[in-house]
Structure formats: C-alpha cells, structure tokens
Amino acid sequence: MGFVSVLSFAQQLAAARIRPGETCIDATAGNGVDTLFLAKATGNGGMVHAFDIQEDALARTGHRLRQELPEAWTGIRLHHASHDRMTELVPREQHGAVAAVMFNLGYLPGSDHTVITRPDTTLPALDAALALLRQGGVLTVAVYPGHEGGAMEAEAVDRWAAGLKQEEFQAVNYRFLNQRNHPPYLIAVEKRQRASSNQ
User: Fold this and answer.
1) Could you tell me how far CA 190 lies from the centroid of its own chain?
2) Mind listing the pLDDT tens digit for each residue in 119-133?
C-alpha cells in the first residue's frame, strides 16, 4: 500500500478524533472539500464553521454541499470572513469544544493566484484554532511553499509549530522528501489531554 497524499492524511487524522455531533472548523473553505468531509464526519447533529475571504470560494463550497448533502443537513455555517476572526464568529459555547480545525493554505485553485493566505492573518488564526480546540482535538495545516509568497508563509508556520509547548501540544510534520517543485506538506498539532488532578 502506498503513502497517502497530504490532504488524505489530514482527513485521516481528523476522522480519528471527530465524534458525531461535535463542532469542527474549515479555516479555508476553498472548493469545499474539507467542509464536506467535516460535515459528514460530525453528522447532521454536529456543527461545521467554514471561513473564506473570497465569495467565489463560499459559492463553490455551498454548491458542493448542496450537491452532496441532504436538504435536512442544517449544521453548517459559511463565514465570509478571514480565518483570524474565528474566535469572534464561532459561538462562545463552542470555545474549547472544537474537535478539529483544518487549514489548506495558499490560493483558491482555478482562481486569482495573487489572493493567497499570508502569515499576518494565518498565524493569529492558528493561535485562535488552538484555543478553540478541545483536549484531544487536532489542527491540520496543509502548507504550500511552491507559489510566490508560499515559502515565506511556510517558514513562519514551521517556526510557529516548532515553538509550541510540548507539555500542551504534540506537533508532527508529514512530507515527501524526494518530490520536485516544492511539494505541499502537512503540519498537524494535537492538543494534549490534561492529566487528572485526582491523586
């Protein structure tokens, strides 16, 4: 059996932690692939928040969801907003209860390649995502260093992940080492379970 792609591995990590009825976040809706995946993983009793600054991305996401989910599926909120506003836009009762947050950095495929994710909003969004996660929850970040501006963002995200406190988080890096043209790679962060205070 061959190695899975970066995006497939991100979904595997999230699926292993999501329980039906939980809340999840797609921090970069794009074409809606991860939004749909999270909706199916949480079930119709769950909640998925999807963020994107481009109306085209939200339109594509909405179209995908209408095609793939029953009309009765009500637990999805599409936010026309930057992902660094997730703390503000996710209801307070869901703070600290999110099972998974998925980022897919770079640009929207088939759209304007000059509209890209940038460190000045990505890094605050990553911090916000960790604060929203429940214990045992996971954050996945698909990083694309190949486009203009991508290498700078990748370096910033690498530094951010390497600087996380190991007592609170586990961070891993999944990448293919012998592919040409700066292939994407995955950073995943798990929020550690706190040790019980019972003696």
Assistant:
1) 12
2) 999 999 999 999 999
